[in-house]
Amino acid sequence: MRKRIAVIGGGIAGLAAAVRLRDRLGEDADITVFEQAGVLGGKLRTGDLGGLAVERGAESFLNSGPGGTESAAVALARRLGLGEALVHPARQPAALAIGGRLTPIPAGTLVGVPGDLSTLDGVALPDAGSDSDTGKPLLAPGEDVAVGALVRSRYGDEVVDRLVDPMLGGVYAGRADQLSLRVTMPQLALAAETEHTLRDAVRSAQSSSRRVPGAPVFAAVDGGMSRLVSAAATASRARISLGLPVRELSRHGDGWRLVLGPVPAPQVEDVDAVVLAIPAAPAARLLAGLAPEAAQAVGGLAYASVALAGLALPPGTPLPELSGFLVPPGEGTLVKAATFFTRKWPHLDSPAGPVIVRASLGRAGEEDRLQLDDAALLARAHRELCALAGVELPAPAASWIQRWGGALPQYAPGHADRVALARSALPPGLALAGAAFDGVGIPVCVASGSSAADFVVTFLEEQ
Predict the structure, then answer these.
(1) Topology of domain 46-65+87-91+303-408, per CATH?
(2) How far apart (Å, rounded) are the C-alpha atoms in residues 366 and 362?
(3) CA-CA distance, 424 to 192, in Å (whole number)?
(4) Which of 4, 21, 50, 456 has the CB geometry, 3.0–4.6 Å to 312, for a possible disulfide?
(5) How far is the C-alpha of 79 from the C-alpha of 73, rounded, in Å?
């Protein structure tokens, strides 16, 4: 009998799940991806700016996985026939904007946490004497703490405020004092279970990464991330349902019943298994009547809102010799990061073409500061970029503002344990996937979707 599987959520985690389901089950499966928005891709979205394909969401993904092999995102791109379309950034340094000047980011840090304090000259004054060996590991097995709590206790405040906070802010739009070490830096958390100093834990985590020396750290898809989205949708050969939210999820016989669309005219879909690949709040609503313990475990996850400003500057606009810069929260600007896009990505750079700058605005807890109209937000971004970069940028020939309200999960300490509890409380045939549960970043989301698909296949094979 043909199996029917619903994938609720058409972001990259849901699409990766659909591809994996098709690969595992072949044509003996009816797979439907339900996405309440009008387009697939979630936070992967490519737009035109000055005639170039510029990301309006996630810009790139890690090239290597934790064990030194290719990342799950690279593996998916190859599976989809996009291996030859993978591109890598130029070897340009990045900087920190501190006190009105751009200071190179120290080399050899792990998401901003240094393994060698001597490299921090001009960036931060560490409290090296606090990182002493007390005769026991930094963390007990499975223990989780906020990144800021651990680093402050060992290196002092400036290392967190000037280095770790902007690095984490660039990825999560969050603050080190609120973010889980075990979710944001799992290798460091694992090393901290055996090492007695933070310096040794960082070095141990770095040595275990097994990244090939000289290999690119990041990759992207020539033509934009939307190519990855459309290729995944095609390869899944799934039926795609857009624009109708799944309002209810309930048990129906040995399977599941989905209720979609408006209350006066609902649509009903019956399936054998479900992959739930949506943010925490809507996932908790769907789970409330089915698995209240799971709903409670995931429903409290907070999210940060951000906005992106894209500016196409005239050809030849001079910029610092950098790929971009990060801004510590203490600088007080709304801009928290900037990418000199055409300099960073050489396949887009042309002397006759526009100079593209992309700025990220807003951090967790700063939603009120984003409440400006697009024109005012763009003007603010342009003004702050000039001050932070130390150059007078001309007015853009083309521009856009992309808002991502409630887009970036804020993983409080203990998040991994809460997700494990939620998964253990789920009814059989239902799997969770995506950034709400397993972490941000395209490789993590792809791996999460693939794992959820494997879980569902195992369930179906046992029926």
Answers:
(1) Polyamine Oxidase; Chain A, domain 2 (3.90.660)
(2) 6
(3) 27
(4) 50
(5) 10
Architecture of domain 105-208: Orthogonal Bundle (1.10)
CA–CA dist 363, 367 (Å, integer): 8
Q: Which amino acid is at 242?
A: L
- Give me the numbers of helices (H) and strands (E) for the chain, helices first please: 16, 22
pLDDT in tens, 351-383: 999 999 999 999 999 999 999 999 999 999 999
Tell me the pLDDT tens digit for each residue of 81-113: 999 999 999 999 999 999 889 999 998 899 999
Joined tokens for residue 176: 């080190």
Tokens of 325: 């810069």
Contact 315, 351 (CB under 8 A): yes
What is the value of pTM for the model shown? 0.96
Query: Contact 88/222 with Cβ under 8 angstroms?
Result: no
Beta-bridge mates of residue 283? none
Between the alpha carbon of residue 147 and those of residues 122, 144, 339, the distances in Å are 22, 9, 25
